[in-house]
Backbone:
């Protein structure tokens, strides 16, 4: 398997933008959370609106897998890997997706989140370049998930930020003395491994065609819905869509231009590319997997 965290993003441009939110999945439990960055998806260039004026944007979707036991859901397997009836279970973790506009402006949500995740300064940011989140692929973090209600109180939004400040950082907690005062030392928090496979697609990077194709393969969606219709390859379709202003003449077009039906891109996909506040999620019961809580000993 390709170690996507070693991929260097050599092509970048400056834009300004804001943050988006999560897919419509089960409502991720609010509160302290353990994260691993699973998906880094750069979708090219689209036309948006900034301060009421048309402006190009470079949408990037980041999906975090919430790997704390409180975010684990037990699912019953209907069949095993050979297609035979199965009585086994598998665990799927809840997710939180953030949509950003690629930028190196210190005021942009992109850089604010990047700086929070680059808590140890290990990833260099050359002047004038837009850093890539791929350096954090699979990396563990400790933070907090937030719930917000819509103005009319009918919808719930899941966010990684509170009042514009991202609540994610190093997986460690301060050690306090008997009176509760910080000692200056920290306890590291163990972060469980990813349950799902990484998906990475970086726009026009300097990697080889072989690695670029491996990225493309990682974003393919296979399988069928319960009604027998195939799952929609929305990521690939977004990249190869005529709405991607950077597609003509690109390496992605040359290598993968015939991989999907570009005309299949529908209104739902177009809406998903907009940089908007966090999308609402549907509340659902969560069955917590019986496992050891890595934060319990720390009182969290």
Residues:
């Amino acid at each position: 398997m390709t170690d996507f965290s070693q991929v260097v993003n050599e092509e970048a441009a400056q834009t300004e933008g804001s943050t988006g939110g999560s897919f419509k999945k089960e409502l991720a439990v609010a509160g302290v959370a353990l994260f691993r960055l699973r998906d880094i998806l750069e979708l090219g260039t689209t036309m948006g609106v900034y301060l009421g004026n048309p402006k190009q944007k470079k949408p990037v979707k980041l999906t975090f897998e919430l790997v704390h036991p409180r975010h684990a859901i037990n699912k019953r397997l209907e069949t095993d890997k050979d297609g035979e009836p199965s009585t086994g279970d598998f665990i799927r973790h809840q997710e939180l997706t953030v949509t950003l506009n690629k930028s190196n402006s210190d005021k942009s949500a992109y850089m604010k989140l990047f700086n929070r995740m680059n808590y140890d300064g290990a990833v260099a940011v050359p002047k004038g370049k837009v850093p890539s989140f791929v350096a954090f692929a699979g990396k563990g973090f400790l933070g907090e998930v937030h719930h917000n209600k819509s103005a009319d109180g009918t919808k719930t939004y899941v966010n990684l930020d509170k009042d514009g400040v991202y609540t994610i950082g190093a997986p460690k907690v301060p050690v306090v003395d008997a009176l509760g005062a910080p000692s200056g030392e920290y306890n590291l928090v163990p972060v469980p491994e990813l349950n799902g496979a990484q998906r990475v697609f970086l726009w026009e990077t300097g990697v080889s065609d072989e690695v670029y194709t491996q990225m493309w393969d990682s974003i393919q969606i296979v399988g069928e819905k319960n009604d027998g219709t195939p799952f929609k390859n929305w990521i690939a379709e977004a990249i190869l869509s005529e709405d991607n202003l950077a597609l003509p003449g690109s390496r992605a077009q040359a290598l993968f231009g015939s991989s999907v039906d570009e005309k299949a891109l529908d209104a739902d996909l177009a809406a998903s590319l907009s940089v908007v506040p966090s999308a609402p999620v549907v509340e659902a019961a969560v069955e917590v997997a019986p496992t050891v809580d890595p934060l319990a000993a720390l009182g969290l």
Summary: The longest strand covers residues 31-42. The two ends are 34 Å apart (CA to CA). Residues 209-218 form the longest helix (10 residues).
